[in-house]
Each structure stands twice: as structure tokens, then as C-alpha cells.
Amino acid sequence: MVLSPTSKKAVNMTNTAVVGLQWGDEGKGRIVDDLSADYDWGVRYNGGPNAGHTVYVGNIKVVLHTVPSGIFRHGVKCVIGNGMVADPAGLYREICKINSLGDYANSGTLSVSEEANIIMPWHQVLDGIEGGKLDTTRRGIGPCYADKTARKGVRFGHLFDRKGDVSRDVFAGRVRELYDEKREVIKTMLRLCPTKDETAYQLQPIDGIIDEIVAAAEQLKDCITVTDTGELLYDAEQRGESMLFEGAQGAMLDIDHGTYPFVTSSLTTTAGIACGVGFVPRIDRVIGVVKAYTTRVGGGPFPTEEENERGGYLRQKGGEYGSTTGRPRRCGWLDLVQLRKAVRLNGPTELALTKLDVLGGISGKIKVCTGYELDGETIDTFPSRLKDLERCKPVYGEEFDLWVADISGARNFRDLPKSAQSYVLFVEEELGVPITYVSVGPKAEQKILMHRP
Ligand code: IMP
Questions:
Q1: 53 labelled catalytic
Q2: Which of 78, 79, 254, 422 would disulfide-bridge 268, Cβ 3.0–4.6 Å?
Q3: Quick check: 177 pLDDT over 60?
Q4: What is the DSSP string of 320-352?
């Protein structure tokens, strides 16, 4: 932060990324919420309504799915980047919710990339049929990204023309090119999954689809600008404006590097930013967000999972229920093997350790996984092969004495119990990245800013 010579106002010239280093739900929303007022732009680059970013507007809790969290800060312009997927009706509902709290989201403050893909009704139907195997959020995310890659996607640029008007003819033409094939694919999938209740997974007639999405677009027209957001952001960077890139999900859900196939379908790491915003931004700070223990929602391997009363304690005390689907999250110990991979993938310049308070009062010792045992060998790298990962047993090389249940009043590192201090320093040392922020409770002020010399 420097002072502008003309206005004497603090001017932020850094670009910052906030990324999740586990399986999502690390508390990125809170970090973004804390920071966003200092930036000119708030930018989302991956995922879509599978994400749930919790922010507070005054005392009101709001869960955002598609719109960047900076939307609640006046003066912050927000972008839904080309790497994202969104459904127009859902986006409109989200904007209405945002605007019911004040005049926040309108054309000029919220831009959507004309290259972002639209989640079509057939994506939602297919995710309903197939998503059970992977325990997805059933929002149509996977089928939408699959079609994008297969070059069978529908983009916001099909729905809006270059002047920002709804282009019904172009959109309807694109839907007609794709509809018959999608209907056949759905029929086939239903044949292959005979236990499904077919009536729940029927694709509506084509005209209804076109009418509904065009109607949603007409409503959206006054709230968003559909444009070349890569160009918009590139120009802004040239003018010295600052950007906050808000990651969704976490490193272990990345389509390439996560616990495949139990992953989401987008690029969730720092590397995904350039792909998802349409230019290669300078990124000065990368804040890797790490929950003090591990959670995952949905299926897939989770070596340090505690399927017992300690896992239940973390779930209850940490309120570990999905913010998008309400599903209970699986809970377990912190896993340094997994986190080392996430550090490699994201290049964090600093770490935010969240929910340290939740570990307080748990029964027995607090464990940290430092390696895995695989076929009689101890390894410290995270296997990519699902079959190998499934056989890994955690090695808990470090244990910490339990600390008191309530540390939510701590505001300085020295206020923490000794054992909690050792925990923080151990994680920092092992990952080789400074921890600059520790959260000790859900309220914005319940945090410790770690000041470094
Ligand atoms: P999809 O993204 O809906 O395709 O779901 C794929 C996997 O990613 C499932 O296990 C989901 O539970 C998980 N997932 C997707 N989005 C999030 C998120 O924001 N937080 C945590 N898990 C997520």
C-alpha cells in the first residue's frame, strides 16, 4: 500500500490471489471479504454455482455462488471471467439477493465474460443422472465444462450481442445445433442408469428452454455488462489498477492435479487465473488459505479422515456443512503431504490459517500427518493414482497437546496457548511459507495478524 501523491489516499498497487489449498471450504470468502475494499477489481476465474463463498454485509450472512465477493464494496468493479460457468436464471436470482441489501450489482460494476459458458438445462439433467457417482453438487458444472472442451458449449456471447442486447436469434440457433444430440445423450444415460426416476430427468422442449433463458437474459441485461473482460482487465492493469483474484474450490479439486476423478471440472489453482481471466496478470501476493484441519464434501479419497467422534466434534464445532448443498463435510487431521503438493501448485507467498479455534477442546492429542505409508514404504509426496492414494495410511509424525476449547478472544500470537502457538509455527516451518493470518472465530475481528519483522 502506498500513498497517492495527489489524493493522499491509500492506493493499493498490488494484485493478489486468494486460493484454497485443500478440498475447498477453507474460508476463502472471509479473507476476500477482509481485503476486497482495498482493490479496484474483484475477479472470479473458475467454477460457478458449485461454489459457496460466505460474506457478511453488516450482520447479514450472505452466500455468494457466482458473483465475486467484492460486489458489496462500493467502488470495486467485479468480473465473472471466461473460466467460469453460470446459469442466467441462477445468476439473476443471486443478483436480486445482492441488490435487496443495497444497490450493489448493476451494469458497470458487474461484467461477465462473453467467453464464459452457460450452464444449460441439459447440463443440470446430466449432472443429476451421472453426478451421484462422484457426489457432485448437481449444478451441471461437470457436463458444462465437458461440452466447453468438446466445443459444444453455449457462451454468454451467444446470448448477448456486442452492444449488450439479447441476441435471441443467435442463441436460438446455437441451441438448435445442440439440442437433439443432448436429448439423445440423456435418453442413453437414462438407459444405462435404469434405477433412476426417469420423469425427474426429462429435458424440457426446446422452445421452452430458449424462452426461459432469453427471459432471464432480458432481466440480466440491466444488471450486467457482457463483454471482453480480458481486454477490460488488461487495460485496467495498464492503468495501474489493482485486482483481487478470488479462487473457488481448492487445489485437491483441480481437474488436473486433484484427486481425479473426484474433482471439480475447472482449474482451481493460481495457474488457472491467467486461463480464466483472459490475460496474464502480474500477481504480487498469493494467499494460500489452509483450514487448521482438513475437510472434504463429497466422495473420494481422504487419507486423514476421522470417521469417529473427533471428526464429529470438528463438524459440529466448525459448522462443517456445505454452504451450497448443506451436505455434512467429512473431517480429519491436517495433512502436510497434501498441503506440500498444494503449495507446489499454487506458489503461495503467504498462508492464512483458518479455524484454529475449532481444534480447541478436542479429545486426546492433536495430530498432524507428515507422511503416508504405502505398501510398507513411507512416502512424503501425494500420489496421483487413485488406487495408490486409496492404499495410503497417514503417518502422524507430530502430535500437540490439546488446548482450551475457547481461544476466540486471542488477538495476538502471544495470546494463544503454547501448544496452539507450536502448532502454527510447525505448519509454517514444514510448508516453508509464512503464516500471516490466523482466524480464531467466525466474526471478522476474531483473527490474529502475524506481524513479521
Ligand atoms: P462439481 O463441482 O459439482 O462437479 O462437484 C465435484 C466435486 O467437487 C464434489 O465432490 C463436490 O462436493 C466438490 N465441490 C465442488 N465445489 C465445491 C466447493 O465450493 N467446496 C467444496 N467442495 C466442492
A1: yes
A2: 254
A3: yes
A4: -B-TTT-PBPEEE-EEHHHHHHHHHHH--SEEE
